Structure formats: structure tokens, C-alpha cells
Amino acid sequence: MKPEQLSDALDLLPDVILEETHRVRCSPKRVRKNRLRWAAGAACFAVAVYAGAKMLEQGLPGGRPELPLLTISEETSGGMGFEGYMAYAISELTNGNPWSEASAPTVLPVYQNPAYDSEADFAGMREILEETARRFGLDPELYGITDNAPDEETRRKITEKMDGNVPEGYFDPTKLRLEADGIKLEAEPDGTVTVSFEPALPLPEEYRFTHHASYADAKQVAEYLKEEYADWLGFKYPQVNIAGGDYNIYLQQSYQIEFFDAGGSAAERILHYNLNRAAFYCDDEGELFLVRFYRPDLLRKVGDYPIVAAEEARERLANGNYITSVPYELPGMDYAAKVELIYRAGSRDPYVMPYYRFYVELPELERDGLKTYGAYYVPAVESAYLSDLPTWDGSFN
Fold first, then answer.
1. Quick one: average pLDDT of 188-198?
2. Cα torsion through 114, 116, 122, 125, rounded to 10
3. Fewest C-beta atoms under 10 Å: which of 75, 311, 313, 322?
């Protein structure tokens, strides 16, 4: 390929791809790791870039749309078993998802995932930690912010125990902390901030805040928490989300109390529900001991992508175009009991993007009327904007 051809091809690439390529190549850890891989693949990459650019120029059938193509990760399990929910009926599994088939948006944003293969952004972590601390009435400058890197004595003991074979970066910090009397805040690279209380905070006697409280009890507790701790949430229109209803092996049912901001358009409510939420947790004594805020960095927007309807997603599911951690083949569409649109933002996902999650009954696992519903994920973005639709191959990662 001639230099001028490569230059022309690169000029046609979206800025987001060029920026990300530069970031990855310039990252110190990635440079060492990928130098040989980059050299070996540069020629192939250049050919692919130029071919794609020429297709765009000529408007050939199959030419890539103007938005960058999205890659789907098929690594779903992370070694933690499969995602399944036990219930006697699908109606027992509930949540406050604002999405509905009747009023679904046709376009939704996609973001680069800050938790995927990137260095920790300590400046961003500090910013979100300070903002959270202020909502709790704490002055970050007064209490100070530290990281979780071990002190010299701890490093020495660990080094001795490992016979000096400490991997590079083993002692690098991964979290930021702020501690005050009776409260600790901890920020993580994925934008999560955990607030814990010591001692835990009691609730009035009339509220039953326990691990296996009923839906009605959880709803009552949630309304109290929303009123009592509205300043903590920082939401203009806080909406209660009672999620769960599945059983454990002891036939105990449980629900999670969460909140999200219900303001804005339908698309904004979907984003808030998935990516800007707060969860409250009780201890064994029924007291509030922890609040967790989920607020990933959504600054690196890739674009607004057309979304397929749920009916087309069902066709994809039937065709095997899904990802799942369930180690069973799809038993048939008659077993697809429920569908909802959600965003995935796990560390294995290169993009924060919308999927349809299907709850599929697994007949192999039914016991005495208690059913297991496995989660099967179908990309919600139109196929023209995907590098390839995933196809289940009879195994899971």
C-alpha cells in the first residue's frame, strides 16, 4: 500500500477510533505488551482500513455505516458460574426497568467502556469521590483522600512471603478512599463509589429491612430511605426500583432496594436506570450499613445507534445470535418467558451498549415446580453497525 493511500484511509476513520488507538499505543503497560503484536498486525490493519474507506467512498453494497462498527465480547461468565434466576413463575421476577416495547426509543447512545482494558483514571475517581462526599456533608479537603496502596511494612512482608517474586504493578493502588468518623467512602476505577457506616444506621422499628423481607416490606423501606436520605442520592426525580424476587437454594426470596433518576426522555430514563443508580444494603441486624453508587464514566461517547425492535431481537435469539453464560442450548422460543432492554457495562465488554436480555426457562433444572430462568443477551444495535453478530457455539467462556 502506498503511503498516500494509507493517509487517505486514516483520514476517513472516525475520531473516536483514532483517539483510542493513540491512547492504547501510548499507554506504558500496553506499549511493552503489544509492541511486537502491533508490528506484526500493522500491515493487515492498514489494508483493512483502506478497503473499508474505499467502500465508503464508492458507496458499495455492504459498505460500513458512518458510525464506527461495534465489537461484541462473547466472554460472559468470568469464572463465576452462569446467570440464572430461580422462581416458580416468571411474574415473580420483577424490577423497575422503565423500558417497554410500546414506547421503546429507536436510537440509543453507545459509549466506550472505561472498565475495559484501560488504566485507572485516578483524576476521575477523585472527582466522583469528592462529589459523593459532599452529598454526605463531608469536606474532602478536611478529611483528605488516600489510596489503597500497602504501606512499606506490608510490602516487605508480602515480598518476603512471595520470595521476592512480586509481579510488576502488584502494589499499585486501585482505589481511592475518604474516611471520617463512622463513615468510609471508596471509589473504584469503574465509577462505583461504596459508602459504609460503622456503626450501622438503625431504621425506625416499623420498618423491616432484612435480607429476605417481602416485596411489600422492601417497598415500604425504600420509600422511607428515599425521604430520609434524598440528599445522598442527588437525583432530581428519585424513582424506587425494587429488583429481584428470585429464590435461593433454601427457598428464600429476596429483593434489592435501588433508586434511579426518573427525569428526562425515555432514552435518558433507560440510561439512568442502568448506569446512574444507587443501591442500599442492610446487615444481619436489619440496619443500614452500606450504600453503593454506580456511575460509570460516560464521557467517551461513540455515537447514537439505531436500535432493533424486540421482535427482531427474538428472531436473533431463535437464530442463535446471542451471548450467554448459561451452559445449555436454547430449549426453544416457547421457553423465552420475558424480555427487557438493558445496558451491559461489565469489565469484559468493550462498549457500554444496549442489549435485550431474555429470561429463558431451562427445563433441565426444574425441581418440584421451582424453575430456573437463564439470561440470554442479544445485541440491540442494528446489525449493520456490528462487526459481527455473536453465534452461540455450544460452550460458554
1. 94
2. 50
3. 311
3-class secondary structure, 205: coil
All cell numbers assigned to 70: 461495534
Facing residues of 344 across strands?
A: 353
* pLDDT score of 11 more than 50: no
The pairing of strands 336-344 and 107-112 is: unpaired
Considering only residues 265 and 61, tell me which one the structure prediction assigns the higher pLDDT.
265
The yes-or-no verdict on residue 9 having pLDDT over 50 is no
- Pairing of β 107-112 and β 301-306: antiparallel
Bridge partners, residue 44, by sequence = none
- Contacts for 70 with CB less than 8 Å, ≥ 6 apart: 110, 302, 305, 350, 351, 353, 379, 381, 385, 386, 387
Give the cell for residue 189: 476505577
* Nearest residue to 280 (alpha-carbon basis) of 362, 329, 221, 359: 221
Mark out the alpha helices in 102-174 (DSSP H runs). Answer: 122-135, 140-143, 152-161
Nearest to 18 by CA among 302, 297, 296: 302
Q: Among 244, 240, 232, 233, which Cα is nearest to 259's?
A: 240
* CA triple 131-133-134, angle to 5 deg: 65
Length in residues, the chain: 397
Q: Cα-flanking dihedrals φ and ψ of residue 90, to 5°?
A: -65, -25
Write out pLDDT tens, residues 303-362: 999 999 999 999 999 999 999 999 999 999 999 999 999 999 888 889 999 999 999 999
* Neighbour-count burial of 210, counting CB atoms closer than 10 A to its CB (0-12 exposed, 13-18 middle, 19+ buried): middle
For residues 76-87, average pLDDT: 77
Using the CB atoms, write b or e for 169-191: b if 16+ within 10 Å.
eeeeeebbbbbeeebebbbbbbb
Per-residue pLDDT at 393: 61
